[in-house]
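Database export, one record per block. Field names are fixed; values are copied verbatim from the stored entry.
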Amino acid sequence: MNPDMNSGENNEFVEDELSLSEFLVPDTLEIKEIKSIYTNEYEYSEYLSEIEFSIADYYCHENRKVTDKDVIRALKNIKENRDKPISFFEKPLEKEIAKSLVEPLEENPLFDHEFTLVIDYVLWVIDNRSWLEDKQAYVKWITYVLGFFSDEEEKKYERQFKKFARKMGVSGAQVDTLLMKRDAEDMFDEEDIFGEGGLLEGLSPEDVFGEGRTADDLETGFFLMNDDEKFDFLMDKGPDYVELVQDYVMELAEKEEFEKIQDFYKKFNEKHKDFFPLHFIVGSAYLNSDPALAISYFEKTLKATEDSEEFPPEMGGELKKYMDILTKLLLEEATEKVEEKVVESKKSKKNQKSGKKP
């Protein structure tokens, strides 16, 4: 075996067993008061650029189907599990981003709170591309900006971008700013995006990063909230943001935090009666873990929508069809279990007659 190859494999194994938190310094009271790294991006450019480069590289060379939501989930998972070894991250994108941060953090450790702010900043940048109404708005944009696209792909992207920007009333100056290709290390050099011709012209930093900022502004910042903040926000305004309710519940399901789902379901129903989408959303959350419970929530959905004009009859038909399929699968599973018990029982009786232990 090539000793260099063996050494490389050992180094990779060691790296996989490291956690990002090993390179993070405990927070001070002063550090905890920092709300955002906005206007100080350049100080954190080595970390930000590694994240952006990893995302663009992954999209360009590994998976052209990766979406902005996939990136958001990956970044949030890294943020929430920064104390876990890198081997904990199973999805390729998560692992690539986490690995890319080891070297800069090893050379220049961050405070723990600073690290979360770096992740939050990238999440905020992703959210600022949502106006493009493309599931891959940010992914394609950062791939273009960092120069990963071929010449043909670049021209195609520019045509599509400018066409949509015109429809949205974005000025030519703003389009030029957004399409300005930069090297990864220059991505976060200081520039006033809130000034004339900037993407957020007319807003102030406080509008975006202020403590009073909620998803009620532009549905922005929801993913930057912690679970308790999301809970409180949705308790108050959930009926106006069905998609956010769904994102919240499905995220809890992914983390297998079903007790939190039940707590949210109970309290939300107490405050917002007859909000039938919640039954369906919670039912969907239990599809993999408890199909029988999922069916019960779908039945509640049908019952709650029998006299509702907001729920089209054809949707009700689709839901019933879906429930029938699940019921059939559950019956088949139950039948298989009964048959297995019968076989085991026969084996046991046969062993008893022959004097053998089962």
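Remark 1: Residues 182-194, 196-220 have pLDDT under 50 and may be disordered.
Remark 2: The first strand starts at residue 24 and ends at 25.
End of record.
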